[in-house]
Amino acid sequence: MFSALGAVNGLFLSIYFAFFTKQKAYSNYFLSALLFVLSIRIIKSVFFHFNPDLSQAFIQLGLSACLLIGPCLFLYTVSITRGIHMNHKMWYYHIIPFIIIISITWFLIPYKAYKSLWSPYLVRVIYLQWLLYIIISGFHLKDTFKKLFAKNKKLNDFEVLLVSVFIGVTIIWVAYFTSRYTSYIVGALSFSFVFYLLLLLGFFKRNKNSTFYEKGAKYTNKKIGAPKAASIANQLDILMNDKELYKSPDLKLSDVAQELQISPHLLSQFLNDNIGKGFSLFLNEYRIEAAEKMIGLKKHLTLEAIGQECGFKSNSTFYSAFKKIKGLTPAKFKRRLD
Protein backbone atom coordinates (compact mmCIF):
# COMPACT_ATOMS: atom_id res chain seq x y z
CA MET A 1 0.00 0.00 0.00
CA PHE A 2 2.76 2.46 0.95
CA SER A 3 4.73 1.59 -2.18
CA ALA A 4 1.71 2.21 -4.39
CA LEU A 5 0.88 5.51 -2.68
CA GLY A 6 4.49 6.68 -2.94
CA ALA A 7 4.71 5.80 -6.62
CA VAL A 8 1.39 7.44 -7.53
CA ASN A 9 2.21 10.60 -5.55
CA GLY A 10 5.61 10.69 -7.21
CA LEU A 11 4.05 10.57 -10.67
CA PHE A 12 1.59 13.34 -9.81
CA LEU A 13 4.41 15.51 -8.46
CA SER A 14 6.47 14.80 -11.57
CA ILE A 15 3.64 16.06 -13.76
CA TYR A 16 3.14 19.07 -11.49
CA PHE A 17 6.78 20.20 -11.63
CA ALA A 18 6.95 19.64 -15.40
CA PHE A 19 3.78 21.45 -16.46
CA PHE A 20 2.12 23.44 -13.68
CA THR A 21 4.80 25.42 -11.84
CA LYS A 22 4.78 29.13 -12.62
CA GLN A 23 8.55 29.41 -12.91
CA LYS A 24 9.64 27.47 -16.01
CA ALA A 25 13.19 26.78 -14.87
CA TYR A 26 15.51 23.89 -15.64
CA SER A 27 15.55 22.93 -11.97
CA ASN A 28 11.82 22.14 -12.08
CA TYR A 29 12.24 19.95 -15.16
CA PHE A 30 15.14 18.04 -13.61
CA LEU A 31 13.15 17.52 -10.40
CA SER A 32 10.20 16.31 -12.47
CA ALA A 33 12.42 13.82 -14.32
CA LEU A 34 13.95 12.64 -11.03
CA LEU A 35 10.56 11.95 -9.46
CA PHE A 36 9.40 10.21 -12.63
CA VAL A 37 12.29 7.71 -12.83
CA LEU A 38 12.08 7.08 -9.06
CA SER A 39 8.38 6.32 -9.43
CA ILE A 40 9.04 3.92 -12.33
CA ARG A 41 11.57 2.05 -10.18
CA ILE A 42 9.17 1.82 -7.25
CA ILE A 43 6.23 0.78 -9.41
CA LYS A 44 8.33 -2.14 -10.66
CA SER A 45 8.86 -3.27 -7.07
CA VAL A 46 5.15 -2.94 -6.30
CA PHE A 47 4.03 -5.05 -9.26
CA PHE A 48 6.76 -7.62 -8.68
CA HIS A 49 5.67 -8.03 -5.06
CA PHE A 50 2.08 -8.76 -6.05
CA ASN A 51 3.00 -10.72 -9.18
CA PRO A 52 6.30 -12.66 -9.06
CA ASP A 53 5.64 -13.76 -12.66
CA LEU A 54 5.80 -10.15 -13.82
CA SER A 55 6.96 -9.58 -17.40
CA GLN A 56 10.76 -9.60 -17.62
CA ALA A 57 10.61 -6.51 -19.83
CA PHE A 58 8.87 -4.56 -17.06
CA ILE A 59 11.53 -5.67 -14.58
CA GLN A 60 14.23 -4.44 -16.97
CA LEU A 61 12.39 -1.13 -17.36
CA GLY A 62 12.39 -0.60 -13.59
CA LEU A 63 16.08 -1.44 -13.25
CA SER A 64 17.03 0.70 -16.25
CA ALA A 65 15.24 3.68 -14.71
CA CYS A 66 17.85 3.59 -11.94
CA LEU A 67 20.49 4.65 -14.49
CA LEU A 68 18.74 8.02 -14.78
CA ILE A 69 18.08 8.66 -11.07
CA GLY A 70 21.66 9.73 -10.33
CA PRO A 71 22.06 12.01 -13.37
CA CYS A 72 18.70 13.69 -12.70
CA LEU A 73 19.66 14.27 -9.05
CA PHE A 74 23.01 15.73 -10.12
CA LEU A 75 21.48 18.02 -12.75
CA TYR A 76 18.81 19.22 -10.33
CA THR A 77 21.50 19.94 -7.73
CA VAL A 78 23.74 21.81 -10.18
CA SER A 79 20.81 23.77 -11.62
CA ILE A 80 20.19 25.20 -8.13
CA THR A 81 23.75 25.58 -6.82
CA ARG A 82 25.39 26.80 -10.04
CA GLY A 83 22.43 28.36 -11.80
CA ILE A 84 22.14 26.41 -15.08
CA HIS A 85 20.19 28.62 -17.46
CA MET A 86 17.83 27.60 -20.25
CA ASN A 87 20.54 27.53 -22.95
CA HIS A 88 22.92 25.32 -21.03
CA LYS A 89 23.69 21.95 -22.67
CA MET A 90 25.21 20.16 -19.66
CA TRP A 91 22.27 17.76 -19.46
CA TYR A 92 23.20 16.32 -22.86
CA TYR A 93 26.34 14.75 -21.40
CA HIS A 94 24.62 13.24 -18.37
CA ILE A 95 21.34 12.01 -19.87
CA ILE A 96 21.89 11.08 -23.53
CA PRO A 97 24.73 8.55 -22.93
CA PHE A 98 22.65 6.60 -20.42
CA ILE A 99 19.60 6.63 -22.67
CA ILE A 100 21.83 5.13 -25.37
CA ILE A 101 23.11 2.49 -22.91
CA ILE A 102 19.53 1.64 -21.88
CA SER A 103 18.56 1.26 -25.55
CA ILE A 104 21.55 -0.96 -26.33
CA THR A 105 21.02 -3.27 -23.35
CA TRP A 106 17.31 -3.46 -24.13
CA PHE A 107 18.02 -5.04 -27.52
CA LEU A 108 21.39 -6.76 -27.03
CA ILE A 109 21.25 -7.86 -23.38
CA PRO A 110 17.56 -8.25 -22.47
CA TYR A 111 16.82 -9.19 -18.89
CA LYS A 112 14.74 -12.19 -19.98
CA ALA A 113 17.63 -13.85 -21.80
CA TYR A 114 20.50 -12.71 -19.55
CA LYS A 115 18.95 -12.77 -16.09
CA SER A 116 22.10 -14.27 -14.53
CA LEU A 117 24.15 -11.39 -15.98
CA TRP A 118 21.75 -8.71 -14.80
CA SER A 119 21.52 -10.10 -11.29
CA PRO A 120 23.79 -9.41 -9.57
CA TYR A 121 26.41 -7.97 -11.95
CA LEU A 122 24.65 -5.32 -14.05
CA VAL A 123 22.37 -4.40 -11.15
CA ARG A 124 25.42 -3.75 -8.95
CA VAL A 125 26.96 -1.57 -11.66
CA ILE A 126 23.73 0.42 -11.92
CA TYR A 127 23.59 1.00 -8.17
CA LEU A 128 27.27 2.00 -8.07
CA GLN A 129 26.64 4.53 -10.85
CA TRP A 130 23.71 5.87 -8.81
CA LEU A 131 25.97 6.12 -5.73
CA LEU A 132 28.67 7.97 -7.71
CA TYR A 133 26.17 10.63 -8.72
CA ILE A 134 24.96 10.92 -5.12
CA ILE A 135 28.56 11.57 -4.01
CA ILE A 136 29.14 14.15 -6.76
CA SER A 137 25.83 15.86 -5.92
CA GLY A 138 26.81 15.90 -2.24
CA PHE A 139 30.08 17.59 -3.16
CA HIS A 140 28.17 20.38 -4.90
CA LEU A 141 25.98 20.68 -1.80
CA LYS A 142 28.82 21.02 0.70
CA ASP A 143 28.34 24.77 1.11
CA THR A 144 24.58 24.29 1.50
CA PHE A 145 25.11 21.70 4.25
CA LYS A 146 27.54 24.05 6.00
CA LYS A 147 24.84 26.69 5.85
CA LEU A 148 22.30 24.20 7.20
CA PHE A 149 24.30 23.63 10.39
CA ALA A 150 25.48 27.24 10.82
CA LYS A 151 23.73 29.11 13.62
CA ASN A 152 23.71 32.51 11.93
CA LYS A 153 22.57 31.39 8.45
CA LYS A 154 19.25 30.21 7.08
CA LEU A 155 18.45 28.10 4.02
CA ASN A 156 16.22 29.67 1.40
CA ASP A 157 13.25 27.83 -0.11
CA PHE A 158 15.24 26.38 -3.01
CA GLU A 159 17.91 25.04 -0.66
CA VAL A 160 15.37 23.47 1.71
CA LEU A 161 13.77 21.55 -1.13
CA LEU A 162 17.15 20.62 -2.62
CA VAL A 163 18.49 19.20 0.66
CA SER A 164 15.24 17.30 1.20
CA VAL A 165 15.42 15.74 -2.25
CA PHE A 166 19.09 14.79 -1.81
CA ILE A 167 18.51 13.13 1.55
CA GLY A 168 15.40 11.35 0.28
CA VAL A 169 17.17 9.92 -2.78
CA THR A 170 20.16 8.86 -0.64
CA ILE A 171 17.93 7.02 1.83
CA ILE A 172 16.14 5.24 -1.02
CA TRP A 173 19.50 4.16 -2.50
CA VAL A 174 20.66 2.80 0.86
CA ALA A 175 17.44 0.82 1.25
CA TYR A 176 17.63 -0.67 -2.24
CA PHE A 177 21.33 -1.45 -2.05
CA THR A 178 21.44 -3.00 1.42
CA SER A 179 18.04 -4.59 2.04
CA ARG A 180 16.64 -7.85 0.75
CA TYR A 181 13.09 -6.66 1.39
CA THR A 182 13.16 -3.59 -0.81
CA SER A 183 9.46 -3.66 -1.73
CA TYR A 184 8.45 -2.98 1.85
CA ILE A 185 11.23 -0.69 3.01
CA VAL A 186 11.57 1.45 -0.10
CA GLY A 187 7.82 1.73 -0.44
CA ALA A 188 7.49 3.24 3.01
CA LEU A 189 10.55 5.46 2.58
CA SER A 190 9.41 6.63 -0.83
CA PHE A 191 5.98 7.47 0.48
CA SER A 192 7.51 9.47 3.34
CA PHE A 193 9.88 11.21 0.92
CA VAL A 194 7.11 12.20 -1.50
CA PHE A 195 4.76 13.16 1.32
CA TYR A 196 7.44 15.47 2.70
CA LEU A 197 7.73 17.13 -0.70
CA LEU A 198 3.99 17.67 -0.68
CA LEU A 199 4.28 19.39 2.69
CA LEU A 200 7.05 21.58 1.30
CA LEU A 201 4.83 22.54 -1.62
CA GLY A 202 2.18 23.63 0.83
CA PHE A 203 4.77 25.65 2.74
CA PHE A 204 5.96 27.41 -0.41
CA LYS A 205 2.43 28.31 -1.39
CA ARG A 206 1.70 29.81 2.02
CA ASN A 207 4.99 31.70 2.17
CA LYS A 208 4.32 35.03 0.47
CA ASN A 209 8.03 35.85 0.29
CA SER A 210 8.94 32.60 -1.41
CA THR A 211 10.77 32.95 -4.71
CA PHE A 212 9.69 29.44 -5.63
CA TYR A 213 5.93 29.93 -5.79
CA GLU A 214 5.13 33.59 -5.54
CA LYS A 215 1.38 34.00 -5.65
CA GLY A 216 -0.19 37.30 -6.52
CA ALA A 217 2.90 38.69 -8.19
CA LYS A 218 2.00 41.64 -10.38
CA TYR A 219 3.87 40.33 -13.41
CA THR A 220 3.10 36.62 -13.15
CA ASN A 221 2.72 34.97 -16.57
CA LYS A 222 3.35 38.30 -18.36
CA LYS A 223 6.24 39.26 -20.57
CA ILE A 224 8.33 42.12 -19.24
CA GLY A 225 7.89 45.13 -21.49
CA ALA A 226 10.93 46.75 -23.12
CA PRO A 227 10.83 49.96 -21.01
CA LYS A 228 10.57 47.99 -17.76
CA ALA A 229 13.31 45.57 -18.82
CA ALA A 230 15.60 48.48 -19.73
CA SER A 231 14.94 50.09 -16.36
CA ILE A 232 15.78 46.88 -14.49
CA ALA A 233 18.93 46.40 -16.56
CA ASN A 234 20.07 49.96 -15.84
CA GLN A 235 19.43 49.64 -12.10
CA LEU A 236 21.18 46.27 -11.99
CA ASP A 237 24.21 47.80 -13.70
CA ILE A 238 24.34 50.53 -11.03
CA LEU A 239 24.02 48.02 -8.19
CA MET A 240 26.74 45.76 -9.53
CA ASN A 241 29.24 48.20 -11.02
CA ASP A 242 28.85 51.27 -8.78
CA LYS A 243 27.73 49.75 -5.48
CA GLU A 244 29.56 46.44 -6.09
CA LEU A 245 26.74 44.48 -4.53
CA TYR A 246 28.23 41.22 -5.84
CA LYS A 247 30.99 41.42 -3.21
CA SER A 248 28.55 40.31 -0.53
CA PRO A 249 29.12 36.53 -0.14
CA ASP A 250 25.59 35.92 1.17
CA LEU A 251 23.83 37.95 -1.53
CA LYS A 252 20.50 36.38 -2.54
CA LEU A 253 18.11 37.08 -5.38
CA SER A 254 15.58 38.43 -2.88
CA ASP A 255 18.20 40.91 -1.58
CA VAL A 256 18.83 42.30 -5.05
CA ALA A 257 15.08 42.45 -5.73
CA GLN A 258 14.63 44.46 -2.55
CA GLU A 259 17.31 46.91 -3.66
CA LEU A 260 15.53 47.25 -7.01
CA GLN A 261 12.15 47.54 -5.25
CA ILE A 262 10.64 44.80 -7.41
CA SER A 263 9.43 41.29 -6.60
CA PRO A 264 11.92 38.37 -6.61
CA HIS A 265 9.71 36.68 -9.20
CA LEU A 266 10.03 39.63 -11.59
CA LEU A 267 13.81 39.75 -11.18
CA SER A 268 14.08 36.01 -11.78
CA GLN A 269 11.88 36.36 -14.87
CA PHE A 270 14.05 39.19 -16.18
CA LEU A 271 17.29 37.24 -15.71
CA ASN A 272 15.94 34.10 -17.37
CA ASP A 273 13.89 35.65 -20.20
CA ASN A 274 15.85 38.80 -21.03
CA ILE A 275 19.42 37.81 -20.20
CA GLY A 276 19.19 34.03 -20.44
CA LYS A 277 21.02 33.39 -17.18
CA GLY A 278 20.23 32.11 -13.73
CA PHE A 279 20.93 34.38 -10.76
CA SER A 280 24.01 32.42 -9.70
CA LEU A 281 25.67 32.66 -13.11
CA PHE A 282 24.73 36.33 -13.45
CA LEU A 283 26.31 37.11 -10.08
CA ASN A 284 29.44 35.02 -10.68
CA GLU A 285 30.16 36.73 -13.99
CA TYR A 286 30.49 40.07 -12.16
CA ARG A 287 32.65 38.44 -9.50
CA ILE A 288 34.93 36.79 -12.05
CA GLU A 289 35.29 40.04 -14.02
CA ALA A 290 36.36 41.80 -10.83
CA ALA A 291 38.73 38.94 -9.97
CA GLU A 292 40.38 39.20 -13.40
CA LYS A 293 41.16 42.85 -12.81
CA MET A 294 42.49 42.23 -9.30
CA ILE A 295 44.75 39.38 -10.44
CA GLY A 296 46.37 41.74 -12.94
CA LEU A 297 46.59 44.78 -10.67
CA LYS A 298 47.12 43.37 -7.17
CA LYS A 299 49.80 40.74 -7.69
CA HIS A 300 50.74 40.79 -4.01
CA LEU A 301 47.40 39.23 -3.06
CA THR A 302 46.86 35.48 -3.04
CA LEU A 303 44.20 34.00 -5.30
CA GLU A 304 42.22 32.92 -2.24
CA ALA A 305 42.22 36.50 -0.92
CA ILE A 306 41.09 37.80 -4.30
CA GLY A 307 38.26 35.27 -4.44
CA GLN A 308 37.04 36.30 -1.00
CA GLU A 309 37.34 39.98 -1.88
CA CYS A 310 35.13 39.39 -4.92
CA GLY A 311 32.39 37.64 -2.95
CA PHE A 312 33.23 33.94 -3.09
CA LYS A 313 32.79 32.03 0.15
CA SER A 314 35.48 29.44 -0.53
CA ASN A 315 38.51 28.92 -2.72
CA SER A 316 36.95 25.85 -4.37
CA THR A 317 33.83 27.82 -5.33
CA PHE A 318 36.01 30.57 -6.78
CA TYR A 319 38.08 28.12 -8.84
CA SER A 320 35.00 26.28 -10.08
CA ALA A 321 33.19 29.46 -11.16
CA PHE A 322 36.32 30.93 -12.78
CA LYS A 323 36.98 27.79 -14.83
CA LYS A 324 33.33 27.50 -15.83
CA ILE A 325 33.14 31.09 -17.11
CA LYS A 326 36.68 31.59 -18.45
CA GLY A 327 37.64 28.06 -19.40
CA LEU A 328 40.79 27.99 -17.28
CA THR A 329 41.73 28.15 -13.60
CA PRO A 330 42.68 31.42 -11.83
CA ALA A 331 46.21 30.08 -11.35
CA LYS A 332 46.65 29.45 -15.07
CA PHE A 333 45.17 32.86 -15.85
CA LYS A 334 47.65 34.47 -13.47
CA ARG A 335 50.60 32.61 -15.05
CA ARG A 336 49.56 33.90 -18.48
CA LEU A 337 49.67 37.46 -17.20
CA ASP A 338 53.12 36.90 -15.74
Which labels suit this protein?
single chain; 338 residues
Contiguous low-pLDDT stretches (5 residues minimum) are 208-221
User: Helical percent range?
Assistant: over 70%
Count of distinct strands: 0
Strand proportion: under 5%
Overall shape: elongated
Radius of gyration: 22 Å
- Please count the helical segments: 15
H/E topology pattern: HHHHHHHHHHHHHHH
Estimate the mean pLDDT confidence: 80
The largest pleated sheet is described as: none
- In angstroms, what separates the terminal alpha carbons? 67 Å
Structural class category = mainly alpha
How would you describe this structure to a colleague?
The protein has 338 residues and is mainly α. Helices cover 75% and strands 0% of the residues. It has helices at residues 2-19, 26-50, 56-81, 90-108, 115-140, 142-149, 157-178, 182-206, 226-242, 253-260, 264-275, 279-297, 303-309, 315-326, 330-337. The longest helix is centred in the N-terminal third of the chain and has 26 residues, at 56-81. It is elongated and about 70 Å long.
Spell out the blueprint of helices and strands:
Elements: H1 2-19, H2 26-50, H3 56-81, H4 90-108, H5 115-140, H6 142-149, H7 157-178, H8 182-206, H9 226-242, H10 253-260, H11 264-275, H12 279-297, H13 303-309, H14 315-326, H15 330-337
Helix pairs in contact: 1-2, 1-8, 2-3, 2-8, 3-4, 3-5, 3-7, 5-7, 7-8, 10-11, 12-13, 12-14
